[in-house]
Amino acid sequence: MTAPEFPLQPFLATATDRTIREPARDIPVIAECDVAVLGGGTSGLCAAVAAARQGASVVLVEHYGFLGGMATSSLVNIWHSFYGMDRKTKIIGGVPDDLIAGLKGFDAVYNADAENETAHWVLDSEKCKFVCDDLVLASGVKLMLHTSLAGVLRDGRRIDAALVESKSGRGAIVANTYIDCTGDADLVRFAGVQTQVGNAVGGCQAPSLCFRLTDVELSQTGFENVQAELFKTPMNYNNGHYPPLLWASRWPGQDNEWMAAGVRVLDVNSANADDLTRAEIEGRYQLRWFLEQARRLPGWQDVRLIGIGTQIGPRESHRIIADHELTREEVLYGHRFPDAIAQGTYPIDIHNPSGPGIVFEDLDGTRREVKGDRTTLVGRWDGLGPDEPKRDTLCYQVPLGGLVPRELDNVMAAGRNIGASHESAGAIRVMVNCMQAGQAAGVAAALAGKRGVRAAEADQVRTRLVEMGMPLL
Q1: What are phi and psi of 275, to 5 degrees?
Q2: Band of the pLDDT at 6, cuts 50, 70, 90?
């Protein structure tokens, strides 16, 4: 069915200057704990599990009825390599290893390098929900599902309580330390603390809607060729050019079922309610157009849609202003930090906020710009010629200071909202890096106790992470 013209008017800001005073009321304290984790995506569940394994009492709050974040709610079923650029040196471990082991137990994951398991992992997003449940509950974490962060009570540099809403109404969670794993720095923002948004002009990397397809014959028209063909025809709902970088992964256990990242919505800040509402609906409009056009291509005549992500997948919005802001140069040159708590190889990956196109900057010195019609320009970001040897950087690192909001003493952040520039955030935002940041935040929060997060000594945090199986360099 052809999508009608997309109406923008319902999604424009409608706020007025009018205010209504909410009467003062007593809020019941529904939980007291050592560590409260807000957000149950991959960073949040790793933070909760890691803190609990250090002996802390932990509460984990998640607004969906399941954990896993983008891996489950958005069908983003790729976890990138746990190995360095040499594909020999393991650089990621601990709770992420436990997640992979759990998925293997359900026959719900495969590695693109079947023999050595040094490439990226592809997982079953539905069975991943089982694994997340098992891991969190086995650690003794108190779990609050269908519960959303609604506000913060702050006293100076400390948060006294996180206010949440659920089917039971409003309640307060009182903790020694709070970990913001909301993705949009909601906890920090609700505390009235300044954050940074997107790039230099506030543009955020465009979010993508993922979906599941079956009954396609890729030997006739592969996903790259689909993108090139679709780019030739303006989209019927808004007359714009097809903006995504179309890629896909075969669903575990299925020979002809695919997760496809084939929808991207422009000019979106996912922390803005109007933007996010528009993105969800426009994403489905764009998907309808995609299916209509794809069915005209050889091998795609019988394509069937069998699932759509529960939510669109944001890439960027608010980031904390941290004790240390990770820079583009620190990522690309593999800077070593004495307080390093995470390591990665995923390239700097910038999706154009306002149009087609994507730029990759890899640790080996390569710069790739992929145009909307799938043509690719290849060069170097380090200024060297194309015939010069590639760089031999093994990985980059993330410092503990990047998880600590500068203006707060009992709060940490983990996930895509940590302290990073727009460019470096394009590398650290992927889930394997979010997992590590969460793991480290959980350990640090548990060790800090009531003393404030800066009381957690980096050497001790690193020692505990290594004991958990994290191969820090």
Answers
A1: -60, -45
A2: confident
